[in-house]
Design brief:
By secondary structure, the protein is mainly α. 89% of the residues lie in helices and 0% in strands. The radius of gyration is 51 Å and the shape is rod-shaped. 0% of the residues are buried.
Length: 142
């Protein structure tokens, strides 16, 4: 019975000691310690609040950097889109000018063709009329 009690006591102390060592190492890895730089005891709550405020400040800084980067990218994209818009307007104006010139050229060509058709019909009638008068003159001679 004495051995069982001593064995149980030794197991509990070993467990507590290992757990405490493990806990201290993990807390040290996370940046928490039981004492400050002057070996004065520090409460866990105080250390946690310092870590939390440092983390929040870091997050705020990153958020500000991301916001600035976003604004910069938006401005770059906006400039790129404005440039593309200028190019499209220039292309549209050129196409409009080309269309107007082509329309004018085709209108002049249509006018010339109409004038040629009118001239052709006038000559045709003249020729038919003179041919008719020539034919009439021949039939009278016979």
């Amino acid at each position: 019975m004495l051995i069982r009690t001593n064995m149980e006591d030794m197991r509990e102390k070993t467990h507590a000691r290992h757990y405490e060592l493990y806990r201290r190492r993990r807390l040290a890895q996370m940046g928490f310690s039981d004492v400050d730089a002057h070996n004065k005891p520090v409460s866990f709550q105080q250390t946690f609040e310092q870590k939390r405020s440092a983390h929040l400040a870091e997050l705020q800084l990153k958020e500000d950097e991301m916001r600035q980067m976003f604004v910069q990218r938006v401005k770059e994209k906006e400039a790129e889109l404005k440039e593309a818009e200028k190019e499209l307007h220039a292309k549209f104006d050129k196409l409009k000018k080309d269309h107007t010139e082509e329309k004018k050229r085709l209108e002049e060509l249509r006018k010339k063709i109409e004038d040629d058709a009118i001239e052709f019909n006038r000559r045709k009638q003249q020729t038919q009329h003179s041919h008719h008068t020539l034919t009439l003159g021949k039939s009278k001679k016979k």
